[in-house]
Amino acid sequence: MKRILKLSLTAAFFAGWGIYIHDRQLDVHRIELRHEKLPEAFDGVKIIHLSDLHQKTFGEMNGNLIISCEAVKPDYIFFTGDLISRNENRSFFDAKLFLMEKLTRLCPVYYIPGNHEQDSPENTIYLCRKLRKLGVKILINKSDTVTRDGESVRVWGLMPSIRCYHNGRSFRHLKKIDKAYITELLGQCSNDEFNILLSHTPFAFEEYEKWGADLIFAGHCHGGIIRLPFLGGLLSPERRFFPKYTKGTYFLENSKMVVSAGLGKFRVNNPSEIVVVTLKKG
User: Fold this and answer.
1) 0.85 exceeded by the pTM?
2) 126, HSE (Cβ side, Cα atoms, 13 Å)
3) Is 96 in a helix, a strand, or coil?
4) Residue 130 belongs to a domain with what CATH number?
């Protein structure tokens, strides 16, 4: 009996240690994406995709995260929401602002708010004011034209209603993100340009494709929190089991979507990640 107890305690210790290590681990996930519509000038461009930092830090003042991003030598950085948590004290913002300041010294940084920012509007106004002063390009239902060697792509930032994420304390009867609603927020998509859409939630992928997005970057799902072998992510923030889009690259007829597992929140078998996307024409 004592031997069984010892074995159980040992197993519990190593399981807990494994969870702790996975929860603190930071991976660099590299993806090459090809699209025939991509302008020649953007062939080989490297994009860092970050999402869902919440209240986690990586080293003092996010130093480990900064070093990892610097090593990539990116051309652009996209941050797809939940830089903060809804109940986070502003005293913890310094490490986030220091991170974003260092990133803007590497390349242009684009940011969209997530649902946690929307749940904390006063903090978000404060945060966005600080980010703009640092040179971060904030896209709240608007777009920016990015030009290289005389050719351009359009980067769009979507921020739907908070009712697309929850109704108070309920996750039932959520507002649907469909093509008509995206058009209401962003306007018509330009068919003559290569269109990159930044959206915190990945769950409207089919509607993003109908709207005309060629490439989508999203987060929100934290990789499914717990990842199970052969089954993928277990749970979405909306308390739905085995959500369809949690981590990796997804394809529809005319669109591709990159979903980051994010950086923050508790996770099991699901390391925090920096996603590096190299764009290729073809």
Assistant:
1) yes
2) 14
3) helix
4) 3.60.21.10
Q: What's phi and psi for 219, nearest 5 deg?
A: -145, -120
**Radius of gyration in angstroms for the set of CA atoms belonging to the chain, rounded to a whole number:** 19
Q: What is the DSSP string of 212-250?
A: T-SEEEE--SGGGSBEETTTEE-B-TTS-BS-S--SEEE
Phi first, then psi, for residue 147 (nearest 5°) are: -115, 135
The mean of the pLDDT values for the chain is: 92
Q: How many domains does the chain have?
A: 1
Cβ partners under 8 Å of residue 95, min gap 6 = 57, 61, 62
Q: Look up tokens 């040992």; give the residue.
A: 10
Q: Which residue from 204, 211, 193, 186 is spatially nearest to 259, judged by alpha carbons?
A: 204
Give pLDDT tens digits for 189-247.
988 999 999 999 999 999 999 999 999 999 999 999 999 998 999 999 998 999 999 99
Q: Are 253 and 208 in contact (CB under 8 A)?
A: no
Q: Roughly what angle, to the nearest 10 degrees, separates helices 121-134 and 93-104?
A: 30
Domain holding 6, by residue range, is: 2-281
The rounded distance, in Å, linking the Cα atoms of 137 and 130 is 11
Residue 117 corresponds to which tokens in the numbers above? Answer: 């920012």
The count of other CB atoms within 10 Å of the CB of residue 38 is 21
Query: Is-contact 225 235, C-beta < 8 A?
Result: yes
- pLDDT, residue 168, reads 87
